[in-house]
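stage 2 :: seqdesign
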């Protein structure tokens, strides 16, 4: 029979227990059975069972001792809790009493109850100090419940604010271990937010006070570095200010997820303003001064690299007056400026200026008060106009104009179109920055009109100089064509001595002029863009046609010479097709038809003059071309126009 505790459950009968043990043992029954009675076997069974009972007794005894120990420990803990609760209640009771006494004492006259009032005040401050000490200890132990109880009691005491201050100070201990105060602050607020809600009755006030404390103390550690560069390194100062302000506003955005009261956005904005106000007030002055110096340095560095001493434009000197007259007329007032093909326009310089301005616009957007943003952005734009448009592009145009040779110069190198090309490319970048970065900052303010007007003035000033330069460049091109014709075209080209031994082809002068014109057309296409290409090529084509028209009228033509003139004009017309301008091609078609008057039989003159290209021309013009024929008088051709 297994020995277990269940065998001794109440009611227990020892005789019955022994009888059952003997009965279950083989040979142990007293009334016989299947086996004969065996006293030795029964004795062995009793001894064995006694040993089992001893072991069971020891096991049960150990369990009893364990339970008794546990019971004593729990009783002790319970007693401590009861004592704590009693002590806590005595604190609450004492606090309630002293609070009421303190309020009553305020109404008592000082002269009669000075001693009483002093004792009450002393007890009030002692109790208040004890409560704060208890709260501090509970916070260090992490006992949220006890902190909540003490905070609730202190709520009616003057020292409640001090309790909050203690909490704010202690919760920051060990929180700032990294080099990133912003990340540490975000992590701290995230960690204590729930705890504040559990401990304090007005958690939004405590969180707001914590954040204010952090802004006014922890974030201030970043400012000595900022102050250190304020006078010594303006660029680094502006970069540091922008970075610090950006990270602070980003932190404020994260903090809006916490309960900081009904107007947390205004609260955080005021905090940021309070710590940055002295820096933001002087920001735009620092920005303008930095950009002014930086832009001047970039420009000077470029001209130094070209070993170029910048000329004073608009100085009012006699030389300046002569230069401006020469630029705007074709009067020979001395030699042009030799720039050796240098345009004095630098893509690298432009990129540097635009990059500096882009950073300035970014800082301006971030650091300016919304009411001052358009005005500040406009002032930055004016500096860009001064450095890029006036000091660089306009100066290069002035130099380019000075370098354009007079129209009668021989073998002149025309670099002004290269200036035009680079100036257009630069202005596209300027216009892109205007639209992409300046417009969003001023689009809803009155400054928009001022910016647009300033941009219009800059464009118009540039266009005047570009148009002047292009016009004078075209004059030079025509002058070069005129020089080729004057040196290469012989009078005998159109009145050959032996008309029976002439190869019908265009003349050398025509060939050289067409080659020169083709090169200039290609140059114009590379230098211009959009409608400007057609505009300039139209003007060049018209002048080209006028030159050839006037040139042909300087000669008299035999029958074979007229055929050669037609060949020349056909080649000029083929060259004119490269212009891809219908008007220019039409002019040369008409000129080609006019040249037919040099070779047509006298009886067919009227028929030819009534042709498609000539019917609308002035008869005097037709007559003038017919007069160029060597047989004009002998064949009495004038009668056809009388």
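stage 2 :: out
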């Amino acid at each position: 029979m297994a020995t277990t505790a269940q065998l001794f459950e109440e009611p227990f009968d020892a005789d019955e227990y022994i009888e059952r043990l003997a009965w279950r043992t083989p040979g142990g029954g007293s009334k016989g059975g299947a086996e004969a009675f065996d006293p030795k076997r029964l004795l062995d069974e009793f001894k064995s069972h006694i040993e089992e009972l001893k072991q069971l007794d020891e096991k049960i005894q150990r369990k009893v001792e364990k339970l008794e120990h546990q019971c004593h420990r729990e009783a002790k803990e319970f007693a401590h809790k009861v004592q704590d609760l009693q002590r806590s209640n005595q604190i609450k009771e004492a606090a309630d009493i002293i609070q009421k006494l303190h309020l009553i004492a305020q109404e008592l006259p000082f002269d009669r109850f000075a001693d009483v009032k002093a004792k009450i005040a002393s007890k009030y401050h002692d109790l208040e100090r004890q409560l704060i000490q208890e709260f501090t200890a509970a916070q260090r132990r992490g006992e949220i419940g006890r902190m909540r109880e003490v905070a609730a009691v202190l709520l009616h005491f003057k020292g409640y604010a001090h309790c909050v201050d203690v909490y704010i100070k202690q919760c920051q201990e060990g929180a700032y271990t990294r080099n990133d105060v912003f990340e540490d602050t975000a992590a701290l607020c995230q960690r204590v937010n729930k705890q504040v809600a559990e401990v304090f009755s007005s958690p939004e006030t405590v969180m707001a006070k914590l954040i204010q404390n952090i802004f006014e103390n922890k974030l201030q550690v970043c400012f000595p570095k900022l102050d250190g560069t304020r006078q010594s390194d303006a660029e680094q100062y502006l970069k540091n200010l922008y970075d610090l302000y950006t990270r602070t506003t980003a932190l404020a955005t994260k903090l809006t997820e916490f309960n900081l009261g009904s107007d947390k956005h205004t609260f955080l904005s005021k905090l940021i303003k309070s710590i940055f106000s002295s820096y933001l007030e002087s920001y735009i002055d620092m920005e303008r001064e930095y950009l002014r110096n930086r832009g001047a340095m970039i420009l000077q560095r470029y001209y130094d690299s070209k070993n170029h001493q910048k000329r004073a434009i608009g100085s009012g000197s006699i030389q300046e007056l002569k230069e401006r007259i020469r630029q705007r007329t074709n009067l020979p007032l001395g030699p042009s400026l030799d720039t050796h093909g240098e345009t004095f326009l630098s893509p690298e310089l432009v990129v540097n200026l635009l990059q500096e301005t882009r950073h300035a616009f970014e800082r301006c957007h971030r650091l300016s008060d919304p009411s001052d943003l358009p005005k500040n952005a406009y002032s930055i734009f004016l500096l860009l106009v001064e450095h890029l448009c006036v000091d660089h592009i306009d100066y290069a145009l002035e130099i380019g104009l000075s370098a354009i040779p007079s129209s009668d110069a021989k073998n002149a190198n025309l670099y002004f179109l290269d200036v035009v090309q680079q100036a257009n490319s630069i202005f596209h970048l300027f216009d892109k920055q205007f639209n992409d970065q300046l417009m969003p900052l001023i689009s809803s303010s009155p400054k928009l009109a001022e910016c647009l007007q300033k941009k219009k003035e800059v464009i118009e000033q540039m266009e005047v100089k570009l148009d002047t330069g292009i016009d004078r460049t075209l004059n030079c091109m025509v002058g070069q064509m005129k020089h080729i014709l004057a040196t290469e075209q012989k009078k005998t080209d159109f009145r050959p001595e032996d008309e029976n031994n002439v190869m019908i082809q265009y003349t050398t002068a025509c060939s050289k002029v067409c080659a020169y014109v083709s090169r200039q057309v290609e140059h114009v296409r590379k230098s211009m863009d959009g409608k400007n290409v057609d505009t300039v090529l139209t003007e060049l084509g018209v002048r080209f046609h006028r030159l050839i028209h006037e040139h042909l009228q300087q000669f008299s033509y035999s029958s074979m010479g007229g055929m050669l003139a037609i060949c020349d004009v056909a080649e000029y017309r083929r060259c004119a097709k490269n212009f891809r301008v219908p008007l220019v091609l039409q002019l040369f078609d008409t000129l080609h038809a006019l040249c037919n008057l040099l070779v047509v039989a006298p009886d067919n003159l009227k028929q030819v003059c009534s042709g498609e290209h000539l019917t609308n021309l002035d008869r005097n013009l037709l007559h003038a071309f017919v007069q160029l024929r060597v047989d004009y008088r002998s064949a009495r051709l004038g009668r056809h126009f009388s």
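stage 3 :: structure notes
- The mean pLDDT is 84.
- Residues 39-107 form the longest helix (69 residues).
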